[in-house]
Amino acid sequence: MRKSVLFSIIGMLVIAMSSQSYAASVDFSGQLRTRPETADNQHFAGTEKAFIGNRVRLSANVQAEDGVSAKITLQDVKKWGDSANTSTSQEEQSVDIFEAYFQVDSIKGSPLSLKIGRQTLVYGDQRLLGNLGWVDQGRTHDAFKAMLNLGNVKLDLFASKVREDVTTKGIADEDSDANIYGAYAVIGITDGVTLDVYALNWRDSSGGVQTKDIWTYGARAAVKVGGLKATAEGVIQSGTWDDRANIDQEAYAVAVKAMYSLGMFAVGGEFVSGSGDDDSTDNKQKTFVFPFHTNHGHYGYMDNFSWGNTTAYAIHAVAKPADNLTLKATYWFFQLTEGKGDWLNVAGTKTLLAAKAGSSEDQAGGELDLTAVYKASKSIKVVGGYSFFDAGDAVSVRGGDDGDSTWGYLMMIFNFKG
Fold this sequence. Notes:
- The chain is mostly beta strands.
- The protein has one domain (about 25-415): Porin (Beta Barrel).
- Helices cover about 5% and strands about 55% of the residues.
- The chain has two helices and 24 strands.
- It has an 18-stranded antiparallel barrel.
- It starts with a helix and ends with a strand.
């Protein structure tokens, strides 16, 4: 039912916008993405699984008049075999509106532009704010964004409603919501050198038990000169983790990555570290947490780590034997920043392996990631990957299965415009 309604809306929009009395121009685009995956001992749980994920997106890009545009993207996400079309269930389908916003550029000739509605918030390397593109459903925000273009300085101010507390009696008190507020500036220093500075406020009391009021401040430098491409980012957090228990937030994170290209090859290295909590009784939450990122790939493709309570080193190698083929290899050395702290999941919001009383073991293990990207045509791309994780002592100490972990996938992507 929900799917029928959504596609009926799209149909009516097409008819309305294509009429000669309507001045808007409409371009359509879309994506079909299918990805089989298989995993053995994923997240050290000792289990095996295999499935095929599927994502369909259909976008309408509307240019109503000069400087006024809109975008609507419908999305359908499901696993193969989990569909009412091929079963007797009457489950609610996963078709939803991924994007729905309008944008006004250079209002009355000023440097101010506005974007209002459901949109992605993507900044820097997506370590803090990203569209979560790897995950089929992705991530968007119901947000208001003001964009100032001041030449070498571009400043975004935004407010996102993460969660509205809706009860059987209607909208609950405002203090029961979750919101993000942010200011993000990109400053052009010189050719090939930029500096990002930002301040983010995450306020969450939607659980009805505690209120988080966390401020995240950071800076990111990016350099692209000749064959060198490098970034360095540093972040600190302060504020309140739990107002009822009087627990403050005091955390940090850093990341440095450099790649050097020479012909068809590129090599590089990376260092990341996020603070962990070595004492859960001192009224200070010291693990770095900001769960609106795109963490996949930043801390190994097997998604065993987030930025919080992780310290890791990586060696990267890339080869491009043909214009349409790219081969990548990365090896990660992982340890926990604080062996007495919890090992968090990839989102950074839950515990993957809890701390063991009396143990400070911090050696998490090593991971090899192999990836091949083949561009078959202008519209078709195939991406395959295989990963292997060699567990360290911290896995078994915390009760995880320290046997070999493997993971593989083959992703087929078809993009189109019309």
